[in-house]
Amino acid sequence: MIAINKKIFLAAALGATMLMSACNKKLDQLPNTSVSTDEIYTSIAGAEIAYNGVYSTFYKAEYYARAYVVIPDLAADNMILSAWANNVYNEIHRWTIHSGTYETGNLWGTIYPALHRCNVFLANIDKVPVLSGENAETVGARKKTLKAHIQALRAMFMFDALRIYCKYDLNDPLGLPFVTAPTTEIMHKRKSVQETYNQIVQDLNDAAANIGEDNATGMTRVNKYFIAALQSRVYLYFKKWDLAIAAADKVMSVASFGYETTGANLLKVWRDDNSTKEIIFRPAITEINEAKYFSYGVWLISDDVARNKPNPDFIAPKAFAESFSTADLRRAIYFRKDSVRNYKKDSLYVINKYPGNPAYASWQEKCNAPKILRYAEVALNKMEAAYYVDKSVSKTLLKALRAARIPGYDGTIVDAYDDVTLLNQIREERRKELAYEGHRFFDLKRWGLGFTRNREGDYQAAENAIGEIKPDNYRFQWPIPQAERESNKLCDQNPGYAN
């Protein structure tokens, strides 16, 4: 698999190919011992260790434990980096990102070792023998299921890399450099976007064919609904409208999924990380100390008991927060208007979507599991895709979402929308519903839209008011990290970047 540089590559690729890092049964623990691949795949129990190691990717701060949730909103127009923030994500927020920017290398260096772990697993799982005393049928079924999990995770990791480093154009030659089998070769050309997309789709289709009913009622592991939700996202990005609708329907036709329609229950989604109706997938937090990996509220709120008042690094733009009507259940849950320790003037809109699960407070405050796949996103995926197929379906779905979030909402307003207004309102509703979950940058990019970020006040550093970002700005594609290109001379840089 592609690596960050030769030193990192040998640690990641050889460590995964010739040595398989082992972690214990706890999802959050990163590998702490190493055993050979020949040893780890000598039993189904060993394969389970490797399987759990792949899931540990979600606990990385460079990925969904922080960066991949926060950065897509901070890079766009849903967040403001406060004037007192400690230089975190500055180059991203100011649109001065380059191939040496810290976060570009960190994300690449998280996803590619994860992809390599998937390749190692898929290359070895079928070789796992049935030991004395084990039931061959049971072991065979478990191997098939584990394989489906890893195929789905490989698709997610690859799609997440594609979303940020590539264009969403199947005719573009600059997709990802990737392989689908373990290798210690570090020189690989970038494949096309079409080839990258095809691999993602194939993995998801293979996973869907093999997952069966495994974990069908759970939300912390891959299941058939995880796969369908991710398919609806992938197909939407590449304008496969009918396929996006069909994938979404696999979730939306299940009666147990739907919207929480009261403030109390919607609060449980975000504060308590709990809703079998709304949440399709979130990483597991099975012990209190595992929550430390997901401390979003430390950045967005930062109001521990001793200090009392918040002191966030990132805040919400006033106009965006106030675009939610006062009747909208989301306004009081997503935002908290409060005075801030480092700003003694007016109250600001603190982002309160990750207020901290009380169950974790004895270990560390302000921690919540990310909701990586949700029913609302699936419904929005179908809503947008249906706009290009049957606008009446889009209107019905838009009315349903607003009725769930805004008690007493008058759906006849939607009935009166013309086509242009309907599309704009679908996009605006997506912005609102999915705010601070890691979607805004990618949505603007795939819609071919820019944005404007002017200075709101002196709580925002002047250099963070970047003005207009046009849709053809080359930084909508992150650069291939400089360290990767120094070791992999075949990997072309994205246009616009110096090296």
From TrEMBL:
Domain (SusD-like N-terminal): residue spans on this chain: 72-236
A Pfam family that the UniProt record links to this protein: SusD-like_3
Keyword Nucleus: no
Location of the RagB/SusD domain: 337-497
Organism: Chitinophaga varians
Lineage of the species this protein comes from: Bacteria, Pseudomonadati, Bacteroidota, Chitinophagia, Chitinophagales
Keywords, ordered alphabetically: Cell outer membrane, Membrane, Signal
Keyword Thylakoid tagged: no
Protein name: RagB/SusD family nutrient uptake outer membrane protein
One Gene Ontology term, aspect cellular component: cell outer membrane
Signal peptide per UniProt: 1-22
